[in-house]
User: Which sequence fits this backbone?
């Protein structure tokens, strides 16, 4: 498993991923609408490249047995953080689900956040998103329960990974 920035030539795959309501339904309100045109995917890739700061951003998830990216993993400043915590998120193409790719990618992103000096990484999932809740656990995150007001439209299931001495 590896991560790299999305590239313009990946736009058709990203469009195929983000045109699907079954994927975008779990996104925050501002980004929940499925894409309708290939150009939108290219614009996302360009925006992600502009906002990438070396350790926060959106990466393509690459599986060793697949030619195209299988999905995305992202790290960003947690909107309601008190001490600079970051949040990890992920989403996969439906044709890549069920192989452990999301958990492996999330764990890689968490390790990257620790290497960059962050002490906590959060994941917020919709309480009904059982796949993402299971992924957070498989990525080594601890379930802190349901919280209100941290997710874009109501309650969230909050997970945390905490840096240890072994994490550098």
Assistant:
């Amino acid at each position: 498993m590896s991560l790299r920035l999305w590239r313009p030539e990946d736009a058709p795959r990203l469009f195929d991923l983000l045109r699907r309501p079954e994927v975008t339904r779990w996104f925050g309100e501002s980004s929940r609408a499925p894409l309708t045109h290939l150009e939108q995917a290219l614009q996302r890739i360009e925006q992600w490249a502009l906002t990438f700061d070396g350790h926060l951003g959106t990466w393509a998830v690459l599986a060793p047995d697949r030619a195209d990216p299988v999905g995305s993993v992202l790290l960003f400043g947690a909107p309601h953080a008190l001490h600079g915590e970051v949040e990890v998120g992920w989403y996969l193409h439906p044709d890549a689900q069920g192989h452990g790719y999301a958990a492996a990618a999330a764990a890689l992103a968490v390790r990257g956040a620790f290497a960059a000096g962050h002490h906590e990484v959060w994941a917020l999932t919709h309480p009904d998103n059982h796949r993402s809740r299971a992924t957070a656990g498989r990525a080594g995150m601890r379930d802190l329960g349901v919280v209100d007001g941290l997710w874009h439209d109501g309650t969230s299931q909050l997970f945390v990974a905490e840096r240890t001495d072994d994490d550098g």
